[in-house]
Amino acid sequence: MTKHTIKVCMGSSCYARGNEANLSFLEKYIKENNLDAEIDLYGSNCIAQCSDGPNIKVDGTTYHNIDENKIKEIIKNL
Ligand code: FES
Asked: Using a 6 Å cutoff on CB, does residue 62 contact ligand 1?
């Protein structure tokens, strides 16, 4: 099984626009659903798409305007 990688942009713009909360949500969600073996979670530097943020990268694909519902949707479809 391939492990999935989620990178949460921790640049100041994304951080202020919601990724601080999104990161906490992801940590909690992964733990509660026992997904530690399937998902690696990292922070990343600014990926230069601030105006579309908050952004996360999942297995190399960038997702914009992220919130908790979008995170759940993305993880469900992994
Ligand atoms: S801070 Fe996230 S893209 Fe710039």
From this structure: no
> CA-CA distance, 36 to 61, in Å (whole number)?
20
- Full-model pTM: 0.96
CATH 3.40.30.10 fits 4-76, yes or no: yes
The closest of 48, 74, 73 to 59, measured between CA atoms, is 74
For the chain, give every domain's residue range. 4-76
Compute the distance from residue 72 Cα to the ligand 1 centre, in Å: 21
User: Ligand 1 pocket, 50 CB below 6 A?
Assistant: yes
Q: How is residue 5 written in tokens?
A: 């990688």
Give tens-digit pLDDT for 8-40. Answer: 999 999 999 999 999 999 999 999 999 999 999
Distance CA 37, CA 20 (A): 23
